[in-house]
Amino acid sequence: MKNNILKIIIAFVLFIGMQSCVSYSFTGASIPPDAKTISIQYFDNHADFVVPTLSESLTLDVKDRFSSQTSLILVGRNGDLQIEGVITDYRTTPQAISGDEAALNRLSISIKVKFINLIEPDKNYETTFTRYEDYESTYDLADVQDALIMLINKMLVDDIFNKAVVNW
């Protein structure tokens, strides 16, 4: 008898949970059920120093994240959810000074992102995200740049995704 009551309670809780007004995914994304599409515009590079591949790789990484971790359909323009942004800064700075020279350098990338949610406008945001990675000064930036950009892009994409659909 107790097992039957327990099964009914569990079924009821699951049923109520499935009827909620927000859809959830295993990635933690919380997307309104009426949102079916997302448009992600190309991230133009407005930094003083331009790495030719940065805009393309960042844009593709953002598209890949939303395509692989949500059920949203990627459209060219006017999605239910919209992301646009620009790369505003790309710089290296010395970090750890040892004697007269830097022992570590830091590559930093900043992006300004605008997120529009046509279904739930209170979730809209416009903000700047900055992420960085340190590298030993014995390395030439040209030798480690691609690997650093991959790591930084991942963090920036996490920031965009989390603020847009995880509501952190």
Structural features, described:
- 35% of the residues lie in helices and 36% in strands.
- By secondary structure, it is an alpha/beta fold.
- The chain has one domain (36-166): Lipoprotein like domain (Double Stranded RNA Binding Domain, 2-Layer Sandwich).
- A hairpin with a 2-residue loop joins strand 6 and strand 7.
- It is elongated, with a radius of gyration of 21 Å.
- Mean pLDDT is 86; it is low at 11-27.
Tags for this entry?
about 170 residues; Double Stranded RNA Binding Domain; two-stranded antiparallel sheet; 3 helices; elongated
List the helices and strands and how they pair.
Layout: H1 2-18, E1 23-24, E2 30-31, E3 37-40, E4 44-45, H2 54-69, E5 73-75, E6 81-98, E7 101-117, E8 125-136, H3 141-166
Parallel strand pairs: 3-5, 3-6, 4-6
Antiparallel strand pairs: 1-2, 6-7, 7-8
Helix pairs in contact: 2-3
List the uncertain runs: 11-27
In the CATH hierarchy, what is the class?
A: Alpha Beta
Number of strands: 8
**SSE series:** HEEEEHEEEEH
Helix content: 25-40%
CATH homologous superfamily caption: Lipoprotein like domain
Instruction: Count up the domains.
Output: 1
CATH topology: Double Stranded RNA Binding Domain
Shape: elongated
Structural class: alpha/beta
Mean pLDDT: 86
